[in-house]
Design goal:
heterodimer, A: mainly alpha, MetI-like fold, 2 domains, B: alpha/beta, Rossmann fold, eight-stranded mixed sheet, 12 strands, globular, membrane (chain B)
Chain lengths: 308, 343
């Protein structure tokens, strides 16, 4: 198990470095922070002083070298805007995103397991067809359109839900629904496919020959076998949720890491942006590791391969 | 064409319907729902087995023997449907029972051993927990009690170090051991009838013999009735008391194995027995039955075997020969069985 973990950590070091590199240089293409932080009437001397103070006057490669050296000391720099450590701002925003993504994924997975299993139980039945139609519609709905329509109908016209904010359960409805709709649609289809396969395996007949009831057959014997393909896709969708938070958090004013990223781009707050992207990348890496561990837990055949 | 409605099966089931009969099937007809309509795949099948005895359902692949077994066990896929007949188990027709009641018989009364033990065991659960399941379902046994019984079962079917091996997964066993596990699971609740669907087909010859010996031993110990589904004439000869030969979805001949093998009364049985290598000189061409069986859905009128039959004449094209008694305990579905009997 330890060898397996070590191998995984080493193999993800290179992609992480690429992310760091990409964000650092791309961020600096967005423009000179001096234009934003100094008044329009600022003199050339003032601009140069500002750049020198924050190290923007060094050549890019020198700046990058300094940044890497900082990273090695786990120093993520300071926010240009607030002069607070960037790491603090990012960690403050992170739980809001994790909660949103976590609750969404939990609801999507639980709903998809129930709907997908019921659809798979009698393939091509009316229930299966309805589930198939609704799930493919859900899977192809653009989230920004859904969010805007949701705000228009439920917040503006009907005034049932708030347009933004995090206070109270009602504030969660639109952001979660927006994030949920596509993963849910995709997962229903994946669960259905995997369950149709599992339910046609001989061990299902064997379970019935032992007198197992239908609930036991579906949720004990078939579902765990349908787990591996579902998990693969769910992991992919979880990554999408964390990335998708950028859109949803911006639309609903959700104080998470996605909104923080957009704000720091608009404000040329490079240190915060870099820290936010790095944390997101680390989260995705941790997520993939978690998925691999889950594989090992649900399928003993993988366990043998991983430990070998 | 509906397939059933032909009578005469009752007279032909051969063995008596006395007190020792554990399973009696009559007039069983199964249809397959296909895009082109309904196709009969099991037509008017009847047989019976007594406690402690073995009946072989003999036939080539596609003849409907597995479908018959699954219909009896209530394990047909949704595309197949029983449209007629009776399956009497302990005096009750299980086809008339509700789902819940039928499920309560699956295990304690009627159990089944499947062909491919690798896919028949669930890959993600330990064999111990799968063997414990019958006790958990039917006896509401606690986890620990069921587990202990599972280990006992493993010992009974000859798995070495059962306590340790109960924690292993199916892929960690050899083919023969997996088949033993599957048999153990089937006999867990001492069923009165065990259906074994080609239990040794996927195994090495030496292991085949061991598995057959295990089945025979369990049958003797628990006096269960064994229905052995096979295409292997040697297995039938060694293991079975009675045989029902199936062709194209129906029983064409039945009777005590020794008598049927010594003097077959259906040209198909005769053809099968003639194609066994033993008894032919080395190097000579082995006789075979010309042609192939009709596909389900395009079974011709009259006798399904007539296109391949050396005895066929005009009457065979128009009249479906019913399975009729040809002697004590014997039956044949051939208009001209007497010609074979005379030879």
């Amino acid at each position: 198990m330890l060898t397996f973990l070590r191998r995984r950590i080493l193999s993800s070091a290179v992609p992480l470095l690429v992310v760091v590199l990409g964000v650092f240089f791309l961020a600096r293409l967005t423009g000179d922070p001096a234009n934003l932080y100094l008044p329009l009437s600022a003199t050339q001397e003032m601009r140069e002083a500002f750049s020198a103070q924050h190290g923007f006057d060094d050549p890019l490669l020198v700046q990058f070298g300094d940044y890497l050296a900082q990273l090695a000391r786990l120093d993520f720099g300071e926010s240009l805007r607030t002069a607070q450590p960037a790491a603090e701002a990012v960690l403050r925003a992170f739980p809001a995103t994790l909660q949103l993504a976590g609750i969404t994924l939990l609801l999507a997975a639980a709903g998809a397991v129930v709907v997908g299993s019921l659809a798979a139980y009698r393939p091509n039945s009316p229930a299966d067809r309805i589930a198939g139609f609704l799930s493919s519609t859900a899977a192809s709905t653009p989230d920004f359109w859904f969010a805007i329509m949701g705000v228009l109908i439920f917040a503006v016209t009907l005034d049932w839900l708030p347009t933004s904010g995090t206070v109270g359960a009602a504030a969660w409805v639109l952001p979660v629904a927006t994030l949920l709709i596509r993963p849910f649609g995709v997962l229903v289809q994946v669960v259905r496919g995997a369950m149709v396969t599992a339910l046609s395996e001989p061990y299902i007949k064997v379970a019935r020959s032992k007198g197992a009831g239908e609930r036991r057959v579906i949720f004990k014997h078939a579902l765990r076998n349908a787990g591996a393909p579902t998990l693969t896709v769910a992991g992919d969708l979880a990554v999408g949720l964390i990335n998708g938070a950028v859109v949803v958090e911006t639309i609903f004013g959700w104080p998470g890491i996605g909104k923080l990223m957009i704000d720091s781009i608009l404000q040329r707050d490079f240190a915060v942006l870099q820290a936010a992207v790095l944390l997101t990348a680390l989260t995705i890496f941790a997520l993939n590791l978690l998925i691999d561990i889950c594989y090992v837990l649900i399928d003993p055949r993988v366990r043998q391969g991983a430990l070998a | 064409m509906t397939g059933h409605g032909t009578s005469g099966t009752e007279t032909g089931t051969g063995t008596s319907t006395g007190s020792g009969t554990a399973l009696e099937v009559s007039g069983l007809t199964v249809e397959l729902r296909t895009p082109r309509g309904r196709t009969p795949v099991v037509r008017d099948v009847g047989f019976s087995v007594r406690s402690g005895q073995t009946l072989a359902l003999l036939g080539e692949s596609g003849c409907g023997k597995s479908m018959t077994a699954q219909a009896v066990a209530g394990l047909l896929d949704p595309v197949a449907e029983v449209v007629g007949g009776q399956v009497r188990l302990g005096g009750r027709d299980v086809l008339r029972l509700g789902r819940r009641e039928r499920r309560s018989l699956a295990g304690p009364q009627l159990a089944m051993v499947f062909q491919d033990a690798l896919t028949a065991l669930n890959p993600v659960y330990t064999v111990g927990s799968q063997l414990a399941e019958p006790f958990r379902i039917h006896e509401q046994a606690s986890r620990r009690v069921a587990r202990n019984k599972a280990v006992e079962l493993m010992e009974r079917v000859g798995i070495p170090e059962p306590g340790l091996r109960a924690k292993a997964y199916p892929h960690q066993f050899s083919g023969g051991m997996r088949q033993r596990l599957l048999i153990a699971m089937a006999v867990a609740l001492r069923p009165s009838v065990l259906l074994a669907d080609e239990p040794t087909t996927a195994l090495d010859v030496t292991v085949q013999a061991q598995i057959m010996e295990l089945l025979a031993q369990l049958r003797r110990e628990t006096r269960m009735a064994l229905v052995l589904i096979t295409h292997d004439l040697a297995v039938v000869g060694e293991q079975a008391d009675q045989v029902a030969v199936m062709y194209s979805g129906t029983v064409v001949e039945s009777g005590p194995v020794a008598e049927v093998f010594a003097a077959p009364r259906h040209p198909y049985t005769r053809g099968l027995l003639d194609s066994v290598p033993a008894g032919h000189p080395r190097g000579s061409t082995l006789p075979s039955i010309e042609g192939s069986p009709p596909r389900p859905g395009s079974v011709p009128t009259g006798c399904a075997f007539r296109a391949r039959c050396p005895l066929a004449r005009d009457r065979c094209a128009t009249d479906l020969p019913p399975l009729v008694a040809t002697g004590p305990g014997r039956a044949s579905a051939c208009h001209y069985w007497k010609e074979l009997a005379d030879v």
